[in-house]
Specification:
Helix 2 packs across helix 9 (241-252) and helix 4 (79-93) runs parallel beside helix 5. This protein has helices spanning 10-14, 29-40, 52-62, 79-93, 116-144, 167-187, 205-212, 222-231, 241-252; strands spanning 20-24, 44-49, 69-73, 98-101, 148-153, 192-199, 263-266. Strands 3-2-1-4-5-6-7 form a seven-stranded parallel sheet, with helices on both faces. It has one domain: Rossmann fold. Helix content is 45%, strand content 14%. It contains nine helices and seven strands; from the N terminus they run αβαβαβαβαβαβαααβ.
Length: 273
C-alpha cells in the first residue's frame, strides 16, 4: 500500500498536467466550461458531441492553452460510436485518464402527454449513454493500469424533483446517481474514482431554450417562473457553467484523491432553502 505524501504543494494537487480527458456534450454550456478548466489545468481534452460545428470550434478554442485537443462526433446512445469515441481519444491524446459524462437532454413533458418512447429517449441519453461511456472509458483505463477518474453530471433532481414536466429527466438523473455509486465500488480496485456533481439552476444555452419553449415552465410567463425559482434558492441567483467547471476540476484533480462514490451539490442553496 502506497501512502500519499503528507502535504503536497497546492499547485501539484490542482494540476491536471499530462492527464487525458474526454468530455461528452462538451461543445457548449457546462461541458465546454469543464473542458476549458481542464485544459487550463494542463489536460489534453477531446470534446465529444453531436454538434459538429460547435464542437470543432470549441476544440480550437481549447488549443489556445497549448494542450492537445480534438473533437469527435458521438451520439452517446450508439454503442459503436462511443467505442469509436474512446479509440479516437486514444489516437489523439495517447490514452484516457478522465471521463466527464455531461451529455444530457431535459425535454419538458407532463406524464399524461409523454409516450413510452419519449421516456426511453431521455433514459437512453442520460443514463444508458453515461453507462456505455463509463464502460468503454474504464476498459481503456484498466488496460493502461494507471487508474482514472469518471465524473457524472447529475442534478439536484437526482435527490428532489424541481419542476413538473421533468419526470423522465428526474428518473434518469436519480438512476445516474445510483450508477455512480455502483461503479465506484466496482472500479475502485482498478484505482478508478467515480463521482458526481448535482448542479442546480445554471444559465446555459439549453436552459435558456427550455425556458422559452411552449413546453417549458416559462412558456406563459418566464419572468414569473424565474422569480419563483430564485426565491427558493438561498443565494437568489442562477449559477454559471464555469462554477460547475470549477467543481469538476476539484473532482478530477488530486484535491479529491480520497473521494469516490460521492455527490457534490452545487445549487446555490436550492435544496436547503
Amino acid at each position: 500500500m502506497t501512502i500519499p505524501k503528507a502535504f503536497p504543494a497546492i499547485s501539484q494537487l490542482v494540476s491536471l498536467d499530462g492527464k487525458r480527458t474526454i468530455v461528452t456534450g462538451g461543445a457548449q454550456g457546462i461541458g465546454f466550461a469543464i473542458a476549458n478548466r481542464f485544459a487550463e489545468a494542463g489536460a489534453g481534452v477531446v470534446i465529444a458531441d453531436t454538434k459538429q460545428e460547435k464542437g470543432v470550434e470549441a476544440a480550437k478554442a481549447l488549443a489556445a492553452f497549448g494542450r492537445k485537443t480534438g473533437f469527435v462526433r458521438c451520439d452517446v446512445t450508439n454503442e459503436a460510436e462511443v467505442a469509436a469515441m474512446v479509440k479516437e481519444a486514444v489516437a489523439t491524446l495517447g490514452g484516457v485518464e478522465i471521463l466527464v459524462n455531461n451529455a444530457g437532454i431535459f425535454p419538458f413533458a407532463l406524464t399524461p402527454d409523454m409516450t413510452g418512447a419519449d421516456f426511453m429517449n431521455v433514459m437512453d441519453v442520460n443514463l444508458k449513454g453515461a453507462f456505455v461511456c463509463a464502460r468503454e472509458a474504464a476498459r481503456q483505463m484498466t488496460t493502461q493500469g494507471l487508474g482514472g477518474c469518471i465524473i457524472n453530471i447529475c442534478s439536484i433532481d437526482s435527490l428532489h424533483p424541481s419542476n413538473q414536466g421533468l419526470a423522465a429527466y428526474d428518473a434518469s438523473k436519480g438512476g445516474l446517481l445510483t450508477l455512480t455509486k455502483s461503479l465506484a465500488v466496482e472500479f475502485g480496485p482498478a484505482k478508478i474514482r467515480v463521482n458526481a456533481i448535482a448542479p442546480g439552476g445554471v444559465f446555459t444555452e439549453g436552459t435558456r431554450k427550455a425556458m422559452t419553449t411552449s413546453a417549458g415552465p416559462g412558456s406563459s410567463d418566464m419572468r414569473a417562473w424565474l422569480k419563483a425559482f430564485l426565491s427558493r434558492t438561498a443565494l437568489k441567483r442562477m449559477g454559471t457553467p464555469d462554477e460547475i467547471g470549477r467543481v469538476a476540476l476539484f473532482l478530477a484533480s488530486d484535491l479529491s484523491a480520497y473521494m469516490t462514490g460521492s455527490l457534490v451539490i452545487a445549487d446555490g442553496g436550492m435544496l436547503v432553502s
